[in-house]
Structure formats: C-alpha cells, structure tokens
Design a protein that fits this description.
By secondary structure, the protein is an alpha/beta fold. The chain has two domains: 17-227, P-loop containing nucleotide triphosphate hydrolases (Rossmann fold); 246-311, no CATH class. It has ten helices and 13 strands. It has helices at residues 55-62, 80-83, 104-109, 123-139, 155-166, 185-202, 236-239, 242-249, 283-300, 305-311; strands spanning 17-26, 29-39, 44-49, 70-75, 87-90, 173-176, 205-209, 222-227, 230-234, 253-258, 261-266, 273-274, 277-278. Helix 4 (123-139) packs across helix 5 (155-166) and helix 5 (155-166) runs parallel beside helix 6. The longest helix is centred in the middle third of the chain and has 18 residues, at 185-202.
Length: 326
C-alpha cells in the first residue's frame, strides 16, 4: 500500500514550476537570463548542460536557497519561500567527513521539521519523527539500511538514504542534483527506477540534473537544456536536435545516434574538456588544446563523440523516446 508523502495534487491547472524572464546570478556573474519555464505537476524533467551552465543554480533557486535576481519564479502558485517546505532537495555532494558514524536513520531524522532543529522534542514528537523516518526509508526501499552507518554504505545505497531525507517531510517536488554521479550502471538504474516509482505512486514533480542524457531517456517526460545563459524546455525531439542546440550554444551543433544512444557535439570538432567531465563546450577552446589533448580525450572518455561523428557526417535526428510529455 502506497505511503502518502505529499498532499494529494489538486486538480487545478496551476503549474508546478512557472518562470517568466528568470535571471539568476552568482555574485556579479549572471548565470541564467530570461529563462521561461512551465512544468506541469507530476512530470519528471531532466536538466542538462555543460559545467557552469546553471544547473545547480536553478535547482537551488527552486529550493529557495538562491535568490532570484530578476523576473518571476512561482512554485505551485507561490514564491520559493512560500513553497520551500513542500520541496525536497538533494545536493550534489557532501563534504568529506560529514557523515562520520551517523546512522542512516539519524541522517534522515536530522531533516524532520527543520525549523525545530536544536530543540528538545517531547515523547509524542519523537514518536512522530520516528514514524516519518520509517515511512521515508520505506518509500525509497532503504528500510534495511536504517541502522547502518552512512560511511559504510555504497554510493547507490547512500543516494537512496539522501532521497529519503528529502522525503521525510511532506513534499510535492523533489530536486536531485547529479544523483547518478559516480554510480555504476546498476546503481544508476536503481536510482532512476526509484524516481519513476515516486512519480507514479506519490505524484511528485521531479527535476534531476545529469551530464549524460542517455540513462534518462526512458524515465523523463521533458528535457530542460541550459547553455549560454539560456534554456529550452520541451520533449527530447524538440530540444535535442541540431537547430535548437545550435541556437542555445551559438555555434553549429550536431546530434547523432548509435545503438539507441544520443551524442551531442559541435559540427566541426570535439567538445572542450573541463573539470574531469566530457561535456559540451566551445570548439575554439578545443582547438587551443591541440591534437595531443584530443587524443587523450578520445581514450579516457567513453561518451563516443568521435565515433558518432564518424558515423554521422550530417545532422542526425534525435533518438525517439517512446512518449512525449503529457
């Protein structure tokens, strides 16, 4: 029997996320400008783009952690501050040593009714907290991990517990920043199956960022692609195609497919490499790295950009996903 993690979604057509002319900044640097979004309740949206494109900034703005510099941002009809308690957020990383010997159940409990943090709880409130922790761990198939230390868990197990922490309070939206990072393919599939189940059983709206679009093709309803301070939201067919991506990047882009996978690359060369990731960048910076750097790039990253370029001399259509956004 499904456990209610959030209030039943109302039948009105109020979007889960509505942004008009949204501008976000980090200090003096503008990260996103003029972003327009309309995301329906209960959708799973994949968030993609190069390092520095604004993925984390957008998720933090939705979570109420980063102020809006300009424009409008509404979540379920309210401001981020008003909607903050109904949003679960899992950050990209945790500082070394932060878990220490904390048990999984204690880690989840630490987020229960965060406004009460540091206050002593009555026996009745402690019982309520214990029930909330048990429900959240059960919902993420992590109940068997409750007494394990966080520093003893595998990457996939730890990600489940982190999602349970985000669900320990009633939420309507779940924000996941790079939940698949550093996970093996089996653990990635487990996390994505969990995301699908949370959407189907509890009606959650989910936004999750990733570097590789391919694992999410069978899970997400919509794609939000960020580049050059701008973004485009739509189905895979609408967004992951040469014209749309070229407009975002400001240079000719190509989309190829091979064995059911998508490959995005500049029309005339490799993507630039930064920060240990094989991701999208400026072709001019690629040229400055020289042929030796290109050779290293080809052998140390298994994303298949060069193979896809060799097999697709012209623009290739985007991979079919099987269903469009509802």
């Amino acid at each position: 029997m499904a456990t209610a993690l959030a209030p039943d979604p109302a039948p009105e057509a109020v979007p889960a996320v509505l942004a008009r002319g949204l501008c976000l900044a980090r200090g003096a640097r503008e990260v996103l400008s003029g972003l327009e979004l309309r995301i329906a309740p209960g959708q799973v949206v994949g968030l993609f783009g190069s390092n520095g494109a604004g993925k984390t900034s957008l998720l933090q703005a939705l979570a109420g952690l980063l102020p809006v510099r300009q424009g409008e941002l509404r979540l379920h009809g309210g401001t981020p501050a008003q909607a903050r308690r109904s949003i679960g957020y899992v950050a990209q990383g945790v500082p070394d040593g932060a878990y220490s010997r904390l048990r999984a159940c204690d880690f989840v409990a630490s987020a229960w009714q965060g406004e009460r943090w540091g206050m002593s709880l009555s026996p009745s409130l402690r019982a309520r907290r214990a029930r909330a922790v048990a429900r959240a761990l059960e919902a993420t198939a992590a109940a068997h991990l409750a007494q394990r230390g966080m520093d003893e868990l595998s990457g996939g197990e730890r990600q489940r517990v982190c999602i349970a922490q985000a669900l320990v309070n009633p939420v309507r939206m779940l924000l996941l920043d790079e939940p698949l990072a550093n996970l093996d393919p089996r653990s990635q599939r487990g996390v994505l199956d969990l995301v699908r189940e949370l959407r189907e059983r509890h009606g959650l709206t989910v936004l999750l960022s990733a570097h590789d679009i391919n694992p999410l093709l069978g899970v997400m309803d919509r794609v939000l692609y960020l580049a050059g301070g701008r973004g485009r939201l739509g189905s895979v067919e609408e967004v992951i195609e040469p014209v749309a991506l070229s407009a975002l990047y400001g240079l000719p882009m190509r989309v190829a497919r091979h064995d059911g996978y998508l490959f995005i690359h500049p029309a005339r060369g490799f993507m630039a490499e930064e920060g240990g990731h094989c991701h999208h960048g400026d072709a001019d910076s690629r040229a400055a790295q020289g042929p030796a750097r290109e050779h290293e790039h080809e052998h140390h990253h298994a994303h298949g950009h060069q193979r896809a370029q060799d097999q697709a001399p012209g623009p290739a259509p985007a991979q079919r996903t099987g269903e469009d956004a509802p």
